[in-house]
Design the sequence.
């Protein structure tokens, strides 16, 4: 990992170019009160932004710690080389037209390689990016306006989209942002590399990532490890779930998006919480900044409305959070504060009997905070200050100030609508050590994510397996696939291959009825009528043979007493390694969309946890008096597939068992698919 300290925390900045963008960089640094040296570089201008301009990089008083390069793409390569030669700390490459433009310009990829060669050991960010803003030190290598302000401590946010970074900088949720950075094409420094460098700043409390493509998985593993060692959380928005998003990603940043299932599995593996929306993303970062990862998912809620209490209870059903019952200490304290007319519960509707009495509200909040919850939520929507008076709400602010001094654990003010808390009020709450949270869904998503991160920090994982794609992959016949997999411990039906009617009848008798008869050499057997199930005698077997227009047959035992059917599949994902999928099998695979994805290698505990996340888990446990499945046999089947793939890591592209028939005693692969080719050595 290259040292990015000089680049990200510079004492001197060179701005190379004289256009609108470069003038804006100088303006932003001046506006921010950057205390270091600012050196404009332009071959003709005498001054830029009121500062003396230098003719070239070689004329600068010293090697700059950081440089913003705002010239065209071809000139950018020359400037990078000059900066590297004088010993600069690093550069932001603003220009586009590199690898991201390869669909329109074949020379883009070649030019990006020239850029890397020119940089050598000097760190560069981009190209095709806006750069970064250091809100801690007032360094803004940023060619546009932004909505941030100086802070002493805060979160770091990195995006692959410069416009997304601008949008996020405009937030008014009292989220303290220490850094905003853009990665662009990630030609040299990827998201994970920049993220790791930012997390190493003690003033950074958490990291947020906007991801289009993960890229270097090993770098993300190193980032995850570093974050866990520091006790800091990482959250992400990962785009590319839709076909449209994947298409946009490929054309936009030259990233390999890969499958969304693969991305989700990798992020889960690394303990990076994935959020669905920008508001959830920002609220989670705020929670992590304020509290850090949450060891538990228990919450207590109080509000002056039964409607709000009911609403948060109902909303919470969609999230992994719990409302613990009130303990005796809470009950005694709440009763003293609220009197006899309030029904005590969690969530609590405390009515408005004490509204206007800041001391009583503080006592109530303090009492609620004595429970074993991980965070206490006070639901408060403030009136809009352009049409209404907020004076009557001073009592809850007074109460909160008392509560954080007398109570224990974090206290958050939560609004039903995100807009019902202004930035000045949110700032005031933060100064009081009260966490302002915007919206029920966003708050609960944040709590769930912060708890997931805490749990993940306790896990240790072996490195994710990648391997090399094979050449000329082909589909292996079902019978051969079963033979290969059974050698690794997979349970398959007793079976035989036969061509003549005499041999088929002989093998059928040997295996024992009931039987399954399949025609070989047909891809979609069921649709082609090349499968017969539950053949109970020789006469039925002979009739089935005569009705199938095939030359060779697979005769198998019929598996009965099924608890359920599962799909187990492992697919090579070019972006994320080998992705293991556990899902409802048979005809239910597409119907239920019941699946969990992991990345190899997996451990027995991981498989057991994944099985528990399936909707079919109730069937596996024995539903309504039905027999339970022998879960250890399912795990054995999964581990057998993994062993096979790892043994053929540079050959296998895909392995699938569908269905795996699960019985009270066995887990049998009644159909198997393998696609593999020649190892590319």
Sequence:
């Amino acid at each position: 990992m290259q040292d990015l300290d000089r680049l990200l925390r510079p004492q001197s900045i060179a701005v190379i170019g004289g256009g609108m963008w470069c003038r804006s960089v100088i303006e932003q640094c001046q506006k921010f009160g950057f205390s270091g040296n600012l050196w404009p570089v332009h071959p003709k201008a005498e001054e830029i932004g009121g500062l003396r301009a230098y003719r070239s990089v070689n004329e600068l008083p010293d090697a700059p710690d950081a440089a913003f390069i705002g010239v065209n793409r071809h000139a950018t390569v020359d400037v990078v080389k000059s900066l590297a030669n004088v010993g600069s700390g690093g550069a932001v490459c603003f220009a586009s037209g590199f690898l991201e433009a390869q669909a329109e310009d074949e020379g883009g990829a070649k030019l990006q390689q020239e850029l890397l060669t020119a940089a050598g050991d000097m760190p560069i960010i981009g190209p095709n990016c806006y750069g970064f803003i250091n809100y801690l030190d007032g360094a803004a290598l940023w060619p546009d306006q932004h909505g941030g302000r100086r802070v002493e401590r805060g979160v770091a946010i990195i995006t692959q989209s410069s416009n997304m970074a601008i949008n996020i900088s405009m937030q008014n949720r009292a989220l303290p942002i220490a850094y905003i950075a853009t990665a662009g094409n990630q030609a040299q420094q990827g998201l994970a590399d920049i993220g790791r460098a930012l997390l190493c700043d003690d003033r950074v409390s958490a990291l947020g990532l906007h991801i289009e493509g993960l890229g270097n998985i090993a770098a993300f593993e190193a980032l995850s490890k570093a974050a866990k060692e520091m006790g800091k959380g990482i959250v992400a928005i990962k785009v590319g779930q839709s076909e449209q998003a994947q298409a946009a990603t490929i054309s936009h940043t030259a990233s390999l998006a890969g499958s969304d299932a693969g991305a989700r599995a990798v992020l889960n593996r690394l303990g990076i919480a994935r959020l669905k929306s920008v508001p959830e993303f920002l609220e989670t970062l705020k929670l992590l900044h304020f509290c850090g990862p949450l060891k538990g998912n228990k919450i207590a809620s109080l509000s002056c409305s039964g409607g709000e209490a009911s609403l948060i209870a109902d909303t919470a059903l969609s999230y992994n959070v719990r409302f613990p019952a009130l303990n005796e200490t809470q009950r005694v304290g709440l009763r003293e504060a609220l009197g006899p007319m309030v029904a005590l519960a969690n969530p609590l509707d405390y009515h408005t009997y004490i509204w206007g009495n800041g001391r009583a509200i503080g006592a109530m909040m303090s009492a609620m905070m004595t429970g074993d919850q991980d965070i206490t939520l006070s639901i408060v929507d403030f009136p809009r200050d352009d049409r209404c008076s907020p004076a009557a709400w001073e009592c809850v602010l007074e109460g909160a100030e008392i509560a954080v001094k007398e109570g224990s654990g974090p206290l958050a003010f939560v609004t039903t609508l995100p807009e019902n808390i202004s930035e000045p009020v949110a700032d005031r709450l933060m100064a009081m050590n009260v966490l302002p949270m915007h919206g029920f869904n966003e708050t609960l998503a944040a709590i769930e994510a912060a708890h997931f991160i805490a749990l993940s920090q306790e896990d240790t994982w072996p490195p994710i397996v990648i391997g090399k794609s094979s050449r000329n992959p082909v589909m292996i016949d079902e019978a051969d696939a079963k033979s290969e997999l059974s050698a690794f411990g997979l349970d398959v039906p007793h079976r035989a291959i036969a061509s003549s009617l005499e041999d088929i009848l002989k093998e059928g008798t040997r295996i024992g009825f009931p039987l399954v008869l399949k025609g070989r050499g047909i891809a979609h057997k069921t649709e082609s009528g090349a499968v017969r199930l539950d053949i109970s005698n020789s006469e039925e077997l002979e009739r089935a043979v005569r009705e199938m227009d095939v030359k060779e047959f697979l005769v198998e035992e019929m598996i009965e007493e099924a608890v359920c059917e599962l799909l187990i599949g492992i697919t090579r994902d070019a972006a994320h390694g080998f992705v293991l999928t556990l899902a409802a099998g048979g005809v239910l695979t597409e119907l239920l969309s019941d699946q969990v994805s992991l990345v190899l290698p997996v451990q027995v505990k991981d498989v057991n946890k994944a099985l528990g996340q399936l909707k079919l888990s109730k069937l596996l446990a024995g539903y309504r008096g039905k027999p339970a499945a022998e879960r250890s046999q399912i795990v054995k089947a999964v581990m057998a597939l993994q062993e096979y793939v790892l043994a053929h890591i540079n050959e296998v592209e895909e392995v699938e068992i569908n269905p795996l028939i699960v019985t009270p005693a066995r887990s049998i692969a009644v159909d198997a698919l393998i696609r593999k080719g020649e190892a590319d050595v």
Q: What stands out?
A: The radius of gyration is 31 Å.
